[in-house]
Amino acid sequence: MMKRSDLTTATRLLISTCIIIVICLCIVSGAMANDQPCASTPETRQLDYWLGHWTMGTGPDKSASNVTLSLDKCVFVEHWENSKGHVTEKTFAYSPEDKNWYGLFVDNQGRVHVFVDGKVSPDTAEFRGPSKGENGQPVLNRLKVTRLPADKLEEVWEKSTDNGNTWTTAYRAEYSRANP
Description:
Layout: H1 4-33, E1 52-56, E2 63-70, E3 75-82, E4 87-95, E5 100-107, E6 112-120, E7 124-132, E8 138-148, E9 152-160, E10 168-177
Antiparallel strand pairs: 1-2, 1-10, 2-3, 3-4, 4-5, 5-6, 6-7, 7-8, 8-9, 9-10
C-alpha cells in the first residue's frame, strides 16, 4: 500500500515531467519555426533575382559569375572570375536591427572594399562604402546591380572623390543568365 507521501512525490514527479516535456516541445517548435528566419523575411529575399549562374562578355574576355545563398539563406555570395585569372568574392546581407544591407568585396589581387550602406528593392540594389585612393585620398565606392528584362542584369561600380557629387565608372558589366 502506498503512503500519502509516496503519492505526493509521484504526483510531483509526474507534474514536473509533464512541464519539462511541454517546455521541450515549445523549444523544438520555436526552433523549427525559426530554423531559417532569412528564408521567409521579405527584405532578405529582395536580391533573389541575382541568384544563379551568369556569363558576361564573349571570347577571350568572357567572365562567369555564380550567386548562391549561405548561412541558412541569410547571405548572398557571388563568386566571379574572368578568363585572365582575376577572381572576386562579394557577400551581401541584410541586418534587421538597423534595416540596412552590408557587403564585402575581396579579390585575388589584394583589394578589399566594405559596403556599409545598402538599399535593395526587388529590381535594384545599391551599396556604398568608403576606401582610399592610390594617394591615400578618400574614395566613395558605389556598386549598383539592376535587374534587366530577359534574364539579364547590369552591374556598375562607380567611384567618387568628392563625396558623391560626381561619379566615375570603374567597371560595368551586363550579366546574362547562363541557364535561363
